[in-house]
Write a structure and sequence with these properties.
This protein is α/β, with parallel strands linked by helices. The protein is built from 9 helices and 11 strands.
């Protein structure tokens, strides 16, 4: 059987380059952190058998974190968000590493996104079959291209994941891409915009979730002095701060003008957190300081 599969894939690869690219997600690796295992993660192979004997605690919520272009499991996003999650509650945190493709050119990384997301959905399906994870208590968090990765994963799982949080989802090649992260990818989709709407912004400016938070108007974060990378990173920094402090409260806005003029005065909603029963819709502005916890 294995030999047959090998010949089969080799034949596919030979006649169709897309057959290779569709396998990009097979290079994903999955790393589990728990309150018993905060520093050194355990790698979990994406098979039902391996997941079944893993230390994932099925009685806890699970949060899966996906890095973006140029990232890896070691990128600061992961330790910061993982530590913030585990200080506040007992959860399973699974960090996905897709650095084999994320470390390539931006357009190669973009090409890998559908496959990386589809394989992530495969991992999650195996975890559900192994009765270690339930979609009702699952939160997918993705930064930059990782936001679209979790969008794909959510779509493959029929939008039944409890929550997706998109941290400044990448804009380039996604601005008008119908496969970008969208409202139907999970029961609740929250997007945190920190570097969007300006000429060199990394992130999508459109409101694409159930709730979209525009942090300090959605660009040029305090202390970043028009450094786009700094404002882009602020999306995971404020998300981590929301996990430890739950203090960043947005106000519902009616118009883009209100967002940019900071005149949103309507309903309030806490930004971020690991709340899986959040309800809300619309665009919110949240104002923050310049240093952690913002
Ligand atoms: C953003 O975060 C990454 C990963 O931690 C880091 O390498 C990079 O220098 C940061 N960019 C800026 C502009 O701070």
């Amino acid at each position: 059987m294995e030999r047959f599969l090998f010949v089969f894939f080799a034949a596919l690869a030979a006649c169709n380059a897309n057959a290779i690219s569709a396998r990009q997600g097979s290079f994903n690796t999955y790393h589990l952190y728990t309150s018993q295992n905060i520093r050194i993660p355990t790698a979990i192979p994406p098979t039902e058998a391996a997941i079944r004997v893993s230390d994932i605690n099925p009685n806890l919520k699970t949060v899966i974190v996906v890095h973006g272009h140029g990232g890896s499991m070691g990128t600061s996003l992961n330790p910061l968000v993982k530590d913030a999650l585990l200080t506040r509650e007992d959860v399973n945190v699974i960090v996905v590493d897709w650095s084999v493709f994320a470390s390539q050119s931006y357009s190669n990384a973009v090409t890998a996104v559908p496959s990386v997301g589809t394989f992530l959905a495969g991992f999650i399906s195996q975890a559900v079959i192994a009765e270690k994870v339930s979609l009702a208590t699952l939160h997918l968090v993705g930064f930059d291209l990782g936001a679209h990765v979790v969008g794909f994963a959510g779509r493959v799982l029929n939008g039944n994941v409890a929550r997706i949080t998109g941290l400044n989802p990448s804009d380039s090649q996604w601005g008008s891409n119908s496969q970008r992260l969208s409202i139907s990818d999970a029961r609740y989709v929250e997007v945190i915009h920190t570097d969007s709407g300006l000429m060199f912004s990394n992130g999508i400016h459109d409101a694409i979730g159930h709730v979209d938070f525009y942090v300090n108007g959605g660009n040029n974060q305090p202390g970043c002095f028009y450094n786009n990378g700094c404002s882009h990173n602020r999306s995971w920094e404020v998300f981590a701060a929301s996990l430890t402090h739950d203090h960043l409260i947005g106000n519902l806005c009616g118009t883009w003008l209100q967002i940019s003029l900071n005149t949103c005065r309507s309903f309030t909603l806490p930004m971020g957190t690991n709340d899986l029963e959040k309800i809300g819709s619309g665009m919110y502005r949240v104002n923050t300081g310049r240093t952690y916890p913002y």
